[in-house]
TrEMBL record:
Gene field: B3GLCT
Protein known as: Beta-1,3-glucosyltransferase
Superkingdom: Eukaryota
Species the sequence originates in: Bos mutus grunniens (Wild yak)
Fringe-like glycosyltransferase domain boundaries: 121-212, 264-449
GO cellular component, one term: endoplasmic reticulum membrane
GO biological-process terms attached to the record: fucose metabolic process; protein O-linked glycosylation via fucose
Length: 464
């Protein structure tokens, strides 16, 4: 006779077999239910796609291009990629537009002034206006599948959603109680407006002019305008609009890196001018010297006081608490007329600007010194009412010698020594027909973007 414990196990065996049989049956049924759910979901997606079936010819691609030759080349490469993918699908070709060719008006890069043109020209035969940057990579098949999920007869504002983690000065401390509630698109991932929304925004633009004096962060300001204080449309997040490639479902991607254009510019071909004043000689200049100044081939510190221990150059311009226009134009005159004939590039920075000279040398290798290049982080002033673009000075301003020649040959000058130098330069170059060339590698107030969550974190360090 078996011991009690062993006898108990033998008696439980039929029950155990019954339990295992039930568990297996349940697992099979559960898997069938999951399979049916997946099939149902796929059929639902398929039904939506069929209902919202669109052809490539119904998408207008707008590449946010610039007129500088380097940027035109990149935009043309993206255009050809879109057209080649479209041809491989044997569909009728879509319309692909380069933004800098659409209008000569100064504020075309801010997009909103062009919406009436898109409404008049494309609303009859198109469903979507898709915007992208020149470095955005687009997978046409995935993009079509993505857009087919959204009814083009309705108003849609689609994009990869970003939000602020904390209220920031560049967004005028909007939504300060909870900055995370407001979503705005990462333009590098691409973003789309349905034609009904374009038409609605056009009516609003015709009835009331754009109110913003300054254009600082375009992606945030576009989203604010479309949201219209809660009376308009919020951004609809689209996971297929990507920056980093996180899966095969991505319709777009974007690589944020230095462009590769051959050998970097020699450090001797860049002259760096640091604007300072006597009160900052003791605290800011030592930091410049300890961090990046040693990487520069040519560098001078321009001040209101000659200090041989640094040394500084006294330009004879009194220090001002703001603006510094007189000092900046004196630097331009000195660069052009005093012993710098063979140096093709001038960089003007503040004494609290941080620079990677090595990265700057790689970047400048992409630009032609024979062209009038005015390069940096682009802001705008009064663009809705005939204003101008300018390079914000805190992130550094880069000039080709040809740009400086044309500027100083004109009669455009500071209206006072304490006028805002960056804005006066923007006004002057605009009058000369020399556009600002924008680079995302320059930062007045850097943003740290969490690529996974889309969180924007501000920083008080000025750098590029």
């Amino acid at each position: 006779m078996l011991p009690p414990a062993r006898r108990g196990r033998r008696l439980a065996l039929p029950a155990l077999l019954s339990l295992l049989t039930c568990s297996l049956a349940f697992a099979l049924v559960s898997e069938d239910v999951k399979k049916e759910a997946r099939q149902s979901k796929n059929l639902e997606k398929s039904d939506i796609s069929k209902k919202n079936d669109i052809d490539l010819k119904e998408i207008v691609f707008v590449i946010q291009s610039q007129s500088n030759s380097f940027h035109v080349k990149k935009a043309e490469q993206l255009k050809q990629s879109i057209l080649k993918q479209s041809a491989d699908l044997t569909q009728e070709m879509p319309t692909v537009l380069l933004l800098h060719q659409l209008a000569q008006q100064e504020g075309a890069w801010t997009i909103l002034p062009l919406l009436p043109h898109f409404s008049v020209t494309y609303s009859r035969n198109s469903s979507w206006i898709f915007f992208c940057e020149e470095d955005t990579r687009i997978q046409i098949v995935q993009l079509l599948e993505t857009l087919r999920r959204y009814d083009p007869s309705k108003e849609w504002f689609l994009g990869k959603a970003l939000h602020d983690e904390e209220s920031t000065i560049i967004h005028h401390y909007a939504f300060s109680e909870n900055p995370t509630v407001f979503k705005y698109p990462d333009l590098a991932a691409g973003w789309a407006l349905s034609i009904p929304l374009v038409n609605k925004l056009t009516k609003r633009l015709k009835s009331e002019s754009l109110k913003s004096d300054f254009t600082i962060d375009l992606k945030h300001e576009i989203a604010l305008y479309i949201w219209d204080g809660g009376d308009g449309l919020p951004l609809t997040p689209v996971p297929e609009f990507c920056t980093d490639i996180v899966g095969s479902s991505c319709a777009t991607s974007f690589q944020s890196s230095l462009p590769l254009c051959g050998n970097p510019v020699k450090k001797e071909d860049i002259f760096v001018a640091v604007k300072t004043c006597k009160k900052f000689h003791g605290d800011r200049i030592p930091i410049v010297k300890q961090t990046w100044a040693g990487q520069a081939g040519h560098l001078e510190y321009y001040s209101d006081y000659a200090d041989n221990s640094i040394p500084t150059v006294d330009l004879g311009i009194p220090n001002t608490d703001r603006g510094h226009c007189g000092k900046t134009f004196a630097i331009l005159e000195r660069f052009l007329n005093h012993s710098h004939d063979k140096i093709p590039w001038l960089v003007i920075v503040d004494d609290d600007t941080l620079i990677s000279i090595s990265r700057l040398r790689h970047l400048l290798s992409c630009y032609d010194t024979r062209e009038p290049v005015f390069l940096g982080e682009r802001y705008g002033y009064g663009l809705g009412t005939g204003g101008y673009s300018y390079v914000t000075g805190g992130g550094g301003m880069v000039f080709s010698k040809e740009a400086i020649r044309r500027l100083l040959a004109s009669k455009c000058r500071c209206y006072s020594n304490d006028a805002p130098d960056d804005m006066v330069l923007g006004m002057c170059f605009s009058g000369l027909g020399i556009p600002v060339t924008h680079s995302p590698l320059f930062h007045q107030i850097p943003e740290v973007i969490d690529c996974i969550s889309g969180v924007i974190r501000g920083s008080e360090v000025q750098a590029y």
